[in-house]
Amino acid sequence: MRIRILTVLMTLLVGTCTFAHAQQTKPVSIEVFPFELEDKSAGAGIIPPDEHDRRYLSESAQVAKDMLSQSGRFTVVDAPATDEQAV
To answer: What are phi and psi of 83, to 5 degrees?
Structure first.
């Protein structure tokens, strides 16, 4: 039963996305914010994020920007750099 419901939902979603894409003529502007790591595991307080984690998150944001702009449906807008902490 779950598979049938999921199949119907996915079909509706794909149909809606296709219809919306056909209606759209110019790319939509989109802003990709820097990804953040929220470690909720037991070792979160013991092992702080290191330079590798920060680099991977930065690379992930860049890959997301590249994929969105290469799709042709989006124009990626750069987020202004801030030094504020996440809330």
So the answer is: -105, 15
